[in-house]
Structures are given as structure tokens and as C-alpha cells.
Automatic annotation (TrEMBL):
Gene Ontology MF terms: ATP binding; DNA binding; zinc ion binding
Family of this protein: Belongs to the NrdR family.
NCBIfam families documented for this protein: transcriptional regulator NrdR
Pfam assignment, any one: Zn_ribbon_NrdR
Biological process per Gene Ontology, one example term: negative regulation of DNA-templated transcription
Biological function: Negatively regulates transcription of bacterial ribonucleotide reductase nrd genes and operons by binding to NrdR-boxes.
Residue intervals of the ATP-cone domain: 49-139
UniProt keyword terms in alphabetical order: ATP-binding, DNA-binding, Metal-binding, Nucleotide-binding, Repressor, Transcription, Transcription regulation, Zinc, Zinc-finger
UniProt name for this protein: Transcriptional repressor NrdR
Source organism superkingdom: Bacteria
Cofactor detail note: Binds 1 zinc ion.
Entries under InterPro entries matching the protein: ATP-cone_dom, NrdR-like_N, RNR_NrdR-like
Obligatory cofactor(s): Zn(2+)
Gene symbol of the encoding locus: nrdR
Amino acid sequence: MRCPFCGNTETQVKDSRPAEDHVAIRRRRYCPACAGRFTTYERVQLRDLVVVKKNGRREGFDRDKLERSIRIALQKRPIEGERVDQMISGIVRRLESMGDSDIASDTIGEIVMETLARIDTVAYVRFASVYKNFQEADDFEDFVQELRPPAPEPDTDA
Ligand SMILES: [Zn+2]
């Protein structure tokens, strides 16, 4: 594995352990050339997924890209990193088990929203607002209203 800091290909594995409830192996690596340390993950890949975008363009599924968009949505939310990793692995597993290597980008968006909705409402709204690309502030308001049951009347006795 090439060192991300200096490009040296002779890096060493210092530690390997199961991660994400044994879905992945986490390896701590060390680069003797620059003393850099970094982590890699080994995961099962059931199939090579291709994302088909709305405009028909196709590109290889990129787990890191998915992870970035989810982490942005979860920024500063009280969700543990390990749980996020598990969530992402769960989403990827679902995509891989859909029976077709071609996955519409919409399908991925829907699955991410569904998953985030169960984990964190704020992250869900953030992700959905980007994903659904709201043009009008009102659309966004309506959308947020749908998320929660109506709040009880404010207590005016206080
Ligand atoms: Zn290095």
C-alpha cells in the first residue's frame, strides 16, 4: 500500500483488527520512509457497482464519496464514528444485494435518506436538503414540517 504522504510503496502493517462488527479489517500502517502513519480498511466487495446518474452518465460506485456526503450531513451530531462506518457498510451491502450492478443515483439517495432518518433527524434534513436540491425556502419548510408530528401547544402558564 502506497504511503499517502510520500508515495513510498514499502509500508508496513503495524496492527490489524476486526472493525465494524467484523465487517471490515482495520489496519494501522507505518511508512518507514517518512514515519507517516495511516489506516486502511479491508472489506468484502460482493460486486462492482455502477452508478447511473439522472443524465444517464455512468460512473463506478465510490464508497468514499458516499461516506463524505454522509459525514458532512452528520457533522457535529452525537453519532459515534464506528456507528457511521456500520451504517455506510449497511448501505453498501444493500446496494450490492439489489441484484443489479447498475444502481440509479436516485436509489442511493433514497436509501441514504431512509437510513439517516432512523439515526438522526438533523442529519437527515441536511442530507435531504442537498439531495432534493430545494429551490424554494417554502419547499424546505414544508419538508421539515412533515418530519415531525405536530408540536404540542406551547405552555403559556410559565
Ligand atoms: Zn511515507
